[in-house]
Fold Dienelactone hydrolase family protein.
Amino acid sequence: MNPTYQYDIHFPANMDPDKRYPAIFTLHGKGSNERNMFGLVEPLVDEFIIVGIRGNLTLGAGFQYYELKSLGNPIREMFDQAVEQLEAFIHYATEKYPIDAAKRYLLGFSQGAILSMTMALTMGDALKGIVALNGYVPEFVKTEYTLKSIQDVAVFISHGEFDSVFPIRIGHETADYMGSLTSRLTFNVYPTDHGVSELNQRDFVKWLKQVNE
């Protein structure tokens, strides 16, 4: 299989050839790229395989995974295809590299957070956990997708208190929705706009280490 997506991969130093490792798949925001996400998870590179997935559609000098009709309103066909292709990519990477299928995590920002939460809902416990930074779950995913149980999936959601793209109300609504489906939810608000603060990063790095123990 040729993967749909270009990607950047980082391995722990001194890997044991007989061991499979937990993996974090990162999904960037609209107009960004996979390298911009690596800095967020670089503190974890000695414990996890890090796979940065680049959106397959260009947007200016960056990339995206799907296009929008309007803000907060994905083009449904493109979104559906992205979810399907990303799941196929995760399976591809798990087979190609020494990734522990029981310890796969998604970490996404903005568009990447939207996809991370959607994929948790469609893949269920095929994922061990997700980190969703400043995103939401599209209404059509909640009402029209075939959803799997995420009761055993650990979920870290954070949102900027002053987010000018997705207002904080959306963060609270998203946390309420995901929290109704899993008891393993952590939800934090940070005094930021549409971005990731150093405290936010420290908190999810610590959370990932704890969840992965």
